[in-house]
Design a protein that fits this description.
By secondary structure, this protein is of the alpha/beta class. A seven-stranded mixed β-sheet has the order 2-1-3-4-11-10-9, sandwiched between helices. Strands 5-8 form a two-stranded antiparallel sheet. A two-stranded antiparallel sheet has the order 6-7. The longest helix is centred in the middle third of the chain and has 13 residues. It is globular. The protein starts with a helix and ends with a helix. The model has no long low-confidence stretch (mean pLDDT 96).
Length: 203
């Protein structure tokens, strides 16, 4: 994947690093550099974000400043960046992401009750957008940690879990993608999560 090798991804969850997950994303994206930023202890400013092709975050512990991070991510998207939001970003009953990025002009989904399934269901193999089809087709993933979601704004669903939950959704320009789960070691969700992130980058 030629385009991936020159790409830079910032992996910035409110969780400890997972070097193996970052390496797998890099490999799936053709050698893209994947750096780690601990969003529990600091908030990346717009200058930091602007150095990257994509920023990927999901929530577990509290963000250092979930509002400022969300505002910075929205400004980053306005400047042409791409954001992938993962598990618990809409989990308003616990630790979650806030700010402008979560409004209906940016985030393609919302969790009406701010809760999570805490139950496993496999991908239903029904995605048709590039997140699931290109450059490598996706056939297998599941996750215990999946937010209850509905579409908002201009959000478009791509794929579902067999229990009917939204698997992925995106803003039509692919500037913001919601990936309902995550492949980090802390969540122990199996399947092709690194390739999903790589596909999102290479769309």
């Amino acid at each position: 994947f030629g385009p991936g090798a020159s790409s830079l991804i910032l992996y910035a969850p409110s969780e400890a690093d997972d070097p193996a997950y970052r390496a797998a994303i890099s490999a799936a994206a053709g050698g893209a550099t994947v750096d780690y930023f601990d969003a529990r202890v600091a908030t990346p400013d717009l200058g930091t974000l602007a150095a990257y092709t994509m920023v990927y975050t999901w929530a577990n512990f509290a963000y250092s400043d979930n509002v400022a991070f969300g505002d910075n991510l929205a400004a980053y998207v306005d400047g042409g960046g791409q954001v992938v939001l993962g598990a618990f970003c809409t989990f308003t009953s616990g630790n979650f992401l806030s700010g402008t990025i979560m409004t209906d002009a940016y985030c393609p989904v919302v969790s009406p009750a701010g809760n999570n399934h805490f139950a496993t269901s496999p991908y239903a193999n029904d995605g048709i957008a590039c997140i699931h089809t290109s450059p490598n087709p996706i056939s297998n993933y599941d996750c215990l940690y999946r937010d209850f979601l509905t579409l908002q704004g201009t959000g478009v669903q791509d794929g579902s879990y067999t229990d009917g939950e939204i698997a992925h959704a995106f803003r039509p320009d692919l500037g913001v993608i919601y990936s309902n789960g995550a492949g980090a070691v802390q969540l122990a969700c199996p399947g092709e999560w690194p390739q999903l992130i790589a596909n999102a980058l290479l769309c």
